[in-house]
Amino acid sequence: MFSRIRCARALPRSLVRSYSEKKFNQRLVDIMENGQNWLLSWAIYDVHASSKLPLGFDRLLKALRYQRSPFIWKALSDASPREVIENPAALCQLVSRAVANNNLELALQYLHTLRSKKHPVNWETVAPLVYLAASRNEARLAIDIAVWFEEHSGVKLGKRVWLECLIASAFIRYDEGLETCWKRIANGREMPEFGSSRLEVVNAAKKLMAS
User: Cα separation of 79 and 72, whole Å?
Assistant: First the structure.
């Protein structure tokens, strides 16, 4: 198997030259982020490192998103701790990677770093994390993250995300969570009285979304 350096040297000279001249060759970025050939992704990253072009290792993390964890840790070891902490795109990728591995605890650690540094967080990062927390019946956690995201980003997560939070709330009998989720699904309307049957709340919310 080619080493990373040999693979980098095997890149067409015209491609490397074009990449250098154009500063940020979108085609090269697409190849790198695709992730189907992880060795080629590493090679492009190495070319970037030697030419000092603005191609961050967060793109390498994205390319390795389907690879085994050791590849991720190798990418991180090539970067300084400050480079990771100050790079919101990289941290978002790490959150997504942890979520894909069903590692809620690790995802929350990266999210905490994003929040403490006041970095922007996108919908693609937060929505799957909320889904994961809700699927674990961590209704309070899921709702706290969802409320924080919508308040600080101005972006709506969407009713399907809130429905998952509502179902988790019903499962653990978290009535305050039911009311919060219902308002998001029903566009601010108060939740009607459903007696003690929380399943009725879930069914009513599903009908509301389908109408």
Answer: 11
* Cβ neighbours around 71 below 10 Å, total: 18
- Whether 44 and 7 have beta carbons less than 8 Å apart is answered as no
6 and 44 Cβ atoms separated by less than 8 Å: no
What are 78's two structure tokens? 């090539």
For residue 192, give the amino acid letter. Answer: P
Q: pLDDT by residue (tens digit) across 181-194?
A: 999 998 877 777 76
Residue 113 has a CB neighbour count (10 Å cut-off) of 16
d(C-alpha 104, C-alpha 149), whole Å: 17
Contact 110, 128 (CB under 8 A): no
Instruction: Kindly report whether the global pTM for this prediction surpasses the value 0.70.
Output: no
Question: Which one, of 17, 24, 44, lies nearest residue 32 by Cα?
Answer: 44
* Axis-axis angle for helices 104-116, 88-100 (nearest 10): 160
How many Å apart are CA 20 and CA 52, to the nearest integer? 10
60 closest CA partner among 83, 44, 84, 47: 44
Which of 77, 36, 31, 38 is CA-nearest to residue 55?
31
CB of 178 closer than 8 Å to CB of 170: yes
Q: Would you list the domain boundaries of the chain?
A: 129-210
pLDDT one-digit tens code per residue, 82-92: 666 777 888 88
73 to each of 79, 115, 124, 167, 199, how far by Cα in Å? 10, 22, 22, 35, 43
